[in-house]
Fold:
Amino acid sequence: MSASESHDTAYDSLTEDHGADGQWAFGTGIEDVAAEITSPVPDGVDPADLAQYCLMLGDDALICSHRLSEWTTNAPELEEEVALANIALDLLGQARLLLARAGHVEQAGRDEDALAYLRPELEFRNVAMAEIGDELDFARAVARLLLFSTWRLALLQRLLTSRDPVIAAVAGKGVKEVAYHRDYAARWALRLGDGTAESHRRMQAALDGVWPYVEELFRTSEVEVALTAAGVAVDPAQIRAEVDSVLDEVFAAATLTRPQRPGIGTIAGRGGRQGLHTEKLGHVLAVMQGLARQHPGATW
Amino acid sequence: MDETALAAGFDATIAADQRIEPRDWMPDAYRRTLVRQIAQHAHSEIIGMQPEGNWILRAPSLRRKAILLAKVQDEAGHGMYLYAAAETLGVDREELTEKLIEGRQKYSSIFNYPALSYADIGVIGWLVDGAAICNQVPLCRCSYGPYARAMIRICKEESFHQRQGYELLLAMVRGTDAQREMVQEATNRFWWPSLMMFGPPDVASPNTEQSMAWNIKRHTNDELRQRFVDMTVPQAAALGITLPDPGLTWNAERGAHDYTEPDWDELAAVISGSGSCNAQRVAHRRRAHTDGAWVREAAAAYAEKRNRAAVAA
Structure:
């Protein structure tokens, strides 16, 4: 085979114009969705509610993506490095669109970065399931991802018909992505649950550990009540049976036992959707926001 | 065929600048050289994830976070392609990983330097990936087929990473004073180690001659280093920053830049273990690999159970 001289010029690419993301091995997960972030707020919808709802869905994705990113250079195998980063990128892509939409409809001049980097803890709207740490326990990562993605997929499937065009578009892109995340987690739940005695013990313990955070996933906030009535949101209480049946199927195949543990309750009626978080979120934000906050007004 | 005839066939293939493929006969020394080089390259991709991975959680914008995460993910992918290329020579990934974490195989010394600011992310893309590309582009024409093919894909992706790094630096030098200072400071730290990435000077590079004879290597260390310097000077000027070498001047007679040699004693010291991050990088990789053992065992046990069930059915 003769020499391929054209590769000698790869270094010159600095001066070439590459429009697309096609040069990435696995993609960045930031391809555009069909809907414009600046689409008008649907008739009869309170923009403040819509902004809050976009923050809920967006913060779930952003904070869970952060936790998954903690696995970079720490995964048990290179294939898992690639897969976990890929899932983190998908969720980051969803978060960026949803935060941008929230920033647009709240009309306060905040973009995705202002919302991600300059909000204090109390203004985050994610569920605790997104923020709890894996502590580099792969079983814990699998357990959380299984529960989170099974729940999020059921939500996104119903949001395909949301009257908000951006939410519907994020759901359109997200359903395919999160179906893969759920499949990935389920396959690992099977391998760990039905692998060795040690992996079974670890997988069951991890599942038991994250189970108390399941309760909150199905708790309906006031914003969700209003926006479900307006055809924008989905009432999470209504997807519980479906999520349960998917999980039961996985648990049975993986020889895992559905945990019998009480769910974590609210404090004076407040949970993640109302900005009340676990002690973990402050640490996540300290790491995530630190550099951006050191350089106010800088663009990167 | 006897060994003499096989060796003659190999020599003829090399002389004709054709590719050697996994099933072809090859001299043991050729195989050993390739295994060493490909393994070192694969390890470099994997260890190289650490300094950049150090900044993913702290990336200062969501766009930069996505770019960095995708880049580090690509590096894991490059490691996978390269370990797969090494497997065609009869060594598996697990065996090579063991050698890495026991310190019996090397990786690029550049990753024993720390990544201390977000400008480092840009400078690693611009200078470190830039130097790597200079080294790697000729490997796309390397005589060993699987390595050459892996390098074609890797170089394409690396050049994209390099462009992303440079674009970050452009954004930073157009930003605040603090951002410009970060870029200059990071450049000052990475300039000399980047020059060292091409290896020792030709007079002190014992393996170059044989590797060039085998068409594994196409240019000498000093040739590649010169090419890198000549390409980088105008890019630094476009950024409005200074390369930290007062001896860097255009030599019209040579049609190339004169530059000061890096401190080869420092390179030797870093290679022999006294870089600021040597112990940290290997310990991190060892911990991840060791901590993941139970997961890999579970996957193997599960696959074994499925296979038995399939046979029984």
In short: Chain B touches chain A through 77 residues (CB under 8 Å).
